[in-house]
Amino acid sequence: MTNKLTLSPLPHTWIFDVDGTVCVHNGYKNGGDVLLDGVKELFAQIPPEDMIVFVTSRKVEEKENLEAFLTENGLRFDHIIYDAPMGERILINDDKPSGLPMAFAVCKKRDAALNLSAEIDGSL
Q1: What pLDDT does residue 8 have?
Q2: In whole angstroms, what is the distance from residue 63 CA to residue 109 CA?
């Protein structure tokens, strides 16, 4: 089953974990990164004006390899945060006065396909 995000026409900020979410967990330590199913399909739906940020516990020494892998797979990004703690990632944001929710969280099973789609709703 695919989860669907219904988003406003405003520009968005997408924040992705790397291992277990976009790539097989610790694949880079076991022969090389492997992209998970559904990732390219979701990235194809992200508007060009949106910002994409990756967060990873990988050491900054992995920067060249990770960025090359992402580029080779056609995954654009604006920023990558390296050396992040391995614990929970917490996003705190305020809603618009109109009531438009300004944050979503999607938790998925490690290494499972990224079954997520996004659509823009101009009425939001």
Answers
A1: 93
A2: 25
Measured CA to CA in angstroms, residue 110 lies from 5, 63, 100, 107, 114 at distances of 20, 22, 30, 9, 10
Q: How far apart are CA 17 and CA 107, in angstroms?
A: 10
Amino acid letter for position 109: K
Q: Which helix (H) or strand (E) segment is 71 a member of?
A: helix 63-72
Instruction: Give SS3 for 42.
Output: helix
The topology under which CATH files domain 3-114 is Rossmann fold (3.40.50)
Identity of the amino acid at 14: W
pLDDT at 88: 94
